[in-house]
Amino acid sequence: MDHQRWQIGFIVNPIAGMGGLVGLKGTDGPAILRKALCRGAAPVAPQRATRFLQQLRPIKEKISLLVGAGMMGEIYAKEQGYRMTVLGTNRDQTTAQDTKNIVTEMVERKVKIVIFCGGDGTARDILESIDQSIPILGVPTGVKMQSAVFAIDPTAAARITLRYLWNELPLKETEIMDIDENDYRKGHLSAKLHGYAITPFEPALIQGSKQASVTTNDELRNQAAIAIFVIEEMQPSTLYIVGPGTTTRTIGDLLEQKKTLLGVDLFYNNKILASDVAEATILKHIKNKPVKIIVTPIGGQGFIFGRGNQPISSRVIQQVGKANILVIATKNKISQLSTLRVDTGDPEVDEALRGYIRVITDYREEHVMKIT
Hints:
This protein has helices at residues 30-38, 45-56, 74-79, 96-108, 120-127, 154-165, 181-185, 217-233, 246-254, 279-285, 314-320, 331-335, 347-353; strands at 6-12, 63-68, 84-87, 113-118, 136-140, 171-179, 191-200, 239-242, 265-268, 271-274, 291-295, 303-305, 325-328, 341-342, 355-362, 365-371. By secondary structure, it is an alpha/beta fold. It folds into two domains: 2-200, Probable inorganic polyphosphate/atp-NAD kinase, domain 1 (Rossmann fold, 3-Layer(aba) Sandwich), CATH 3.40.50; 217-371. Strands 10-9-8-11-13-15-16 form a seven-stranded mixed sheet, with helices on both faces. Strands 3-2-1-4-5 form a five-stranded parallel sheet, with helices on both faces. Helix 2 (45-56) runs parallel beside helix 6 and helix 8 crosses helix 9. The longest helix is centred in the middle third of the chain and has 17 residues, at 217-233. It is globular.
């Protein structure tokens, strides 16, 4: 019966995440969106929104959705057969103000929770239109996701939602963080706290805030020892896809190669073959040659794929194979992680990656960790 229905707000940022595969590190602003489209970027949000809604279908008769018009939620909810009320105006190009207006109306209608598909920029927009009387939960869809309001993937977001609706989870105040994309593209990562929201708390399914890298002498020594070992083990005529991070950058420093801090670079015979590459460039270069991937987990979150290194896509990982993935991390970073995580956007690839993997933590030292 209608009076037993949960009223849920559901809103999608249709351009979130489009810059990831093409190496643009976000899509904030119309100029960057145009650049992403020129590089062949495709929408990420539809697949993520649909995957979330599919996981909730067993209880869809108990749910009444308030959705953004058109690409902002309506299309995907209609495809999955949900009862819904459409808010806002259907537009070919949506703006941050559309998000704010729709969320404001959701608040006025006293929804139980607002679920959004987007990144940190979307979280900031929602924060401006909501108070802490209504919780929010992010289905991770962006490129840069520093905030602690995001589930680890769309399936986890659905599980959190279900448990919250059944009053099985507490609420927790969480940080909304964001970075300046222009600085990010120049290799400078500085996250700023924009405020606090409340989120259903399930530590196994919610990502934490990203933790900044430490720069103590012990940490720098540890990074150098890891890099020396990796370089000694590098094989000739093998392509190395090297992800972002201070630990991976040290490999470039010791090879006297200028590796980008926040981009994905290709190394071949100890030289940089291409810098700050997109997925298409990687796929072109990995044909007909041995390939390995080197990545380091994000501090405080544990993601080795799906956060900040989207050019190393599910298609790339499928071709390279788990056996050819090298994970490196300092002892300090590993000590703060209970598990490693993946969110490639392809559930089959994520499942193939799960299990145990060796992590290089010092010169000829390894630590076995589980990927969940």
